[in-house]
Specification:
Neuraminidase, 691 residues, mainly beta, Jelly Rolls, 6-stranded antiparallel β-sheet, 2 helices
Length: 691
């Protein structure tokens, strides 16, 4: 039979039929329910084979429709769940010798008796000949690559991008049905397991839950100084908590959420949450390779209880995906990007998305770094329900001699949305071949190159404005702020601003050259991430350089252009380890008076860290003194935004100085506050400190 390329096909065909369900004997533990395929009420076309172990069921005839077609091809089970919750469906199957002609079936889209001829009642499972797991320690997902002729487990919910089955507290006993399609597919056992736990083959074989999740899932338990989580080493590419976080963090319900590019029990990254102090950590999702959303690189964009993101190498073709998920571990692919041509690296739609998505209502906006009509990436939109994907822009080909074009190429940063315009950067191309800043309408119209970065000096790699912007942008009113990873007067990147209409391009900071031997400097080098703008201060990371040559965290005050290195990551040892992390390449998150971020490498496992850096409270300064007509004096102060400040006064600075508290004031969002007091001496001194 011809293998179909779709997973589920819905047609409008109504045929009312009820199927009685026999009572199925089940064994269950808290969060897992197992039942044998032969234990249900089997339609007449099913055959049971129990001449050897294990006993299993198989269908006798093929069916080419998009539903079971008759009650004789349906099997029904009455399943009692141990508790309310969301459960995912697992199956132990064996694909016959005809491989892709022996590997499809149906399962009911929800609980209850279904019409065998109503396609919308059924989820179509196809392609089991190239998926599944059999090693006892394998975590069973919707991926895997096992072929035919052996028993193997597969997570059918993940394999078909189904979010799972919800069981309510008052309805623990439910009717569940499967339907037959191709003969040659043998079915041994089914399991419903709660979403979240990482069930292994051994767990499913024995009907047991995984061990209680180690709250730290890590060799390095708890925080160590500023490193509030230290990812475990990956000598064989695998660990429990993930490795190499390439994305920044999101704050959801008081917890930090993020992803890792690598590591996890399947080696394709994880999604995790952790408390702000680092004492609790859990990798709630382990990614695997195609068709899962493996190797996530974009930040998580939350909307209600769901998050949305991109994977660099996941999806059904292994060249990236857009996916939705929840912190219970469920993941649904919204878009799998098409395979790229081996001849010219092009495709329709793009490939390898690498950054956060912008969102507006039910629409997501993103970019791919590769693929598209010219192989240089795309700008796209995707609805949050997965229904509609649109290409807004294909980045054009580069001149083979100069590396230039009109619109830029290979965008690595994410998009930002302001009004009906999207703003972003492309890392190369443009008039100077060094990248561009651009805008485009959310409908794909009016693509405009706002700034093309100048060509680099071929020897010193310097220029006037910077080059190769890897990070995205941040906007304030009509001003965009961003970074370049190279170029500038030091050849190590810049911080820049430009107006949303393309005018007023200004370099705010040139990162200095690094020592040619040690790789160190004072301010860091090669920033690769978007900036954070908070209270008129830009915060960011530089991926290398600094006192330890392993990157920095910095701030830049927009009012004064005062640049401050807030932290230099420690030098890494020959084995790639240090205490605090190295090579930060992701945006920062501010919460309260702290900055949270990720370091891609370093830490005691050489696999990266999550870090927390307090924002230094600037000393308050007196900006103005006014003697009032009524004999009082008004002092104007400038300090930390929204800070609480105690003002003290004394009549003499001769030791011992007797300072007295005279007022407590709260600064506004710009850090300003005033104090008015009476003068009862010819000389009076004032000072303020943050409380």
């Amino acid at each position: 039979m011809r293998r179909n390329s779709f997973h589920r096909l819905t047609v409008t065909c109504i045929f009312a039929m009820t199927i009685s369900a026999a009572v199925t004997r089940v064994a269950f533990a808290d969060g897992i329910v197992t039942f044998e395929a032969e234990s249900g009420a089997l339609g007449a076309d099913w055959a049971v084979s129990n001449s050897s172990s294990p006993a299993y069921i198989t269908i006798l005839t093929d069916n080419t429709t998009n539903n079971p077609a008759s009650a004789a091809r349906v099997a029904s089970y009455s399943v009692t769940f141990p508790a309310a919750g969301t459960y995912q469906l697992y199956a132990r199957v064996r694909v016959g010798t005809n491989t892709f002609n022996d590997d499809s079936m149906f399962y009911a889209a929800s609980f209850g008796g279904k019409s065998p001829t109503l396609s919308s009642d059924w989820i179509f499972v196809n392609g089991l000949a190239a998926a599944g797991f059999s090693n006892g320690t394998d975590v069973v997902t919707g991926g895997g690559s096992l072929g035919s002729g052996m028993w193997k487990w597969i997570n059918l919910s993940q394999f078909t991008s189904q979010s799972g089955f919800t069981v309510s507290a008052g309805n623990l006993t439910q009717t569940f049905q499967i339907g037959a399609r191709e003969n040659g597919l043998d079915l041994d056992e089914f399991v419903f397991g709660t979403s979240g736990p990482a069930f292994t083959v051994s767990n499913l074989d024995s009907g047991t839950l995984p061990p209680p999740s180690n709250i730290n899932t890590n060799l390095f338990v708890g925080p160590d100084g500023m490193a509030i989580h230290r990812f475990s080493a990956i000598p064989d590419g695998l660990n429990l908590d993930g490795a190499n976080p390439a994305a920044g963090l999101a704050l959801v319900a008081g917890a930090l959420c993020g992803t890792t590019l690598n590591g996890g029990s399947q080696g394709a990254g994880t999604a995790f949450w952790m408390t702000l102090d680092g004492t609790n950590f859990s990798a709630f999702r382990t990614f695997t390779n195609a068709p899962d959303a493996g190797n996530p690189q974009g930040e998580l964009t939350f909307s209600g209880s769901k998050f949305f993101s991109t994977s660099l190498a996941g999806g059904s073709n292994g060249v990236g995906a857009v996916f939705a998920g929840q912190t219970n571990g469920s993941v649904t692919l919204l878009k799998s990007f098409a395979a790229v041509s081996e001849d010219n690296a092009t495709n329709s739609g793009g490939a390898s998305p690498s950054a956060a998505l912008a969102s507006s209502g039910a629409t997501l906006y993103g970019m791919t770094t590769a693929g598209g009509a010219a192989g240089n990436g795309t700008i796209f939109s995707q609805t949050t329900n997965g229904a509609t994907f649109s290409i807004l822009h294909n980045f054009t080909a580069l001149d083979s001699q100069t590396g230039t074009n009109l619109d830029g190429a290979v965008p690595w940063g994410g998009l930002i949305l302001s009004g009906d315009k999207l703003y972003g950067t492309a890392s190369v191309g443009g008039a100077g071949g060094s990248g561009v800043v651009f805008s485009i309408g959310t409908n794909g119209a009016s693509f405009t190159t706002l700034h093309s970065f100048a060509p680099l000096d071929t020897i010193a790699a310097t220029n006037a404005d910077g080059a190769v912007p890897f990070g995205g942008l941040v906007v304030s009113n009509t001003t965009l702020y961003g970074t370049t990873s190279t170029g500038g007067s030091g050849g190590r990147g810049t911080i820049f601003s430009v107006q949303t209409n393309g005018g007023g391009f200004t370099v705010l900071h040139h990162f200095t050259a690094v020592d040619s031997i040690t790789g160190t400097n004072a301010d860091g080098a090669s920033p690769c991430a978007s900036l954070l703008l908070s209270s008129n201060v830009l915060y960011g990371t530089a991926s290398v350089g600094g006192a330890g040559a392993a990157g920095t965290v910095f701030s830049l005050k927009l009012a004064s252009l005062q640049f401050t290195t807030l932290h230099s990551f420690a030098t890494i040892a020959s084995n790639g380890t240090n205490r605090d992390g190295a090579f930060p390449a992701a945006p920062l998150l501010r919460f309260g008076n702290s900055l949270y971020g990720t370091a891609f490498s370093g830490g005691p496992g050489a696999a990266g860290t999550v870090f927390n850096i307090p924002i230094p409270t600037p000393p308050a300064v007196i900006t103005n003194v006014v003697r009032n007509l009524n004999g009082t004096v008004t002092l104007s102060f400038l300090g930390a935004p929204n800070s609480t400040n105690v003002i003290q006064a004394t009549a003499s600075l001769t030791p011992p100085v007797a300072w007295q508290d005279v007022s407590t004031n709260i600064a506004d969002a710009n850090g300003a506050w005033q104090f008015t007091g009476s003068i009862n001496a010819s000389i009076r001194f004032y000072r303020s400190y943050a409380n």
